[in-house]
Amino acid sequence: MDGGRHDDPSGVTADHLQDALDSLGGTARRQLAIALRSLFRALKRERLVFRDLARHLPVGDVTGLPRPVPSDLLAGVLDQAATPFARLAIALAAIHAVPASEKRTALTADLNLARSTLELRRGLRRHTLYLEGLTTALPPTG
Length: 142
Known about the structure:
Elements: H1 14-22, H2 26-45, H3 71-80, H4 84-94, H5 100-105, E1 111-112, E2 117-122, E3 125-130, H6 133-137
Antiparallel strand pairs: 1-2, 2-3
Helix pairs in contact: 3-4
């Protein structure tokens, strides 16, 4: 098979599909992944391939976990924050990846320092966020 072309779908491997996706990024990657999933689903339904190799292809643009904020950079940003609540907002974003929309809806009453928890509103549901020592030491007490 020359130039990466395959005349027979049974000769395609999962590595071929991943290589095709790795060469792209953004919207083009997402569109190709969706097209491959659809194509292999149809090929399997027609019994032209035994396995649907594209079934578990990641469709999203993200390929891995976000990198953590280095501790020295986080300490510097926390030192420059003007208020204790600003420090808390920075820690919630940098350590716990809480989006701004959830931070805006959080109330002081939702913070339980005795249990080291913060209840966040996610639409009609509530999510309990368990805080570590640094974050619980940031907000003002009293």
